[in-house]
Amino acid sequence: MLNYQDAPLMLSVSDSMMSIVTMLKDTAPKSFNLEDNDDMNAVEYALESDTDIKVVKTIQRACRDDWRERKNEMDAPHEALQEDLHRIQMDLRSQHLTSPDSKFTKRIGESTGTPITGQLGVNTQAARMA
Q: What's the rounded Cα separation, in Å, for the pair 56 and 51?
């Protein structure tokens, strides 16, 4: 039986994912703990999709580092950090859904199928890959 780690294509995918996670950590380190409309974050998606364990651990460390930085910045209890993160998520969702350039419908938040372009597209695609 061929293990996915033995296949050259999968190694290439794993290396690519690691590069994307590293880029995302450098450009948007606070994004790793954010949850989407399904209340899932990057770690949960990585685990659900059987992503290479090295990539999962890198995402986990990014989440941990972000949490520690938030804790140091706010000097607040865990619950206050959770509330702040939840507020940020809600603000981002409402800004995105009320934006005139949004490609999502306000009613159900589903994609209209219009491709995302430009820098947002690159960041969005990187986040999806992570």
A: 7
Kindly tell me if the per-residue pLDDT of 40 is higher than 60. yes
As a whole number of angstroms, the distance between CA 98 and CA 77 comes to: 32
Decide: 85 and 76 in contact? Cβ < 8 Å.
Answer: no
Residues 6+ apart with CB under 8 A from 31: 24, 42, 127
Between CA 89 and CA 52 the distance in angstroms is 27
Residue 59's alpha-carbon distances to 35, 91, 129, in angstroms, are: 14, 23, 12
**Beta bridge mates, 111:** 104
Q: pTM value?
A: 0.60
pLDDT tens per residue, range 45-87 = 999 998 999 999 999 999 999 989 888 888 888 888 888 888 8
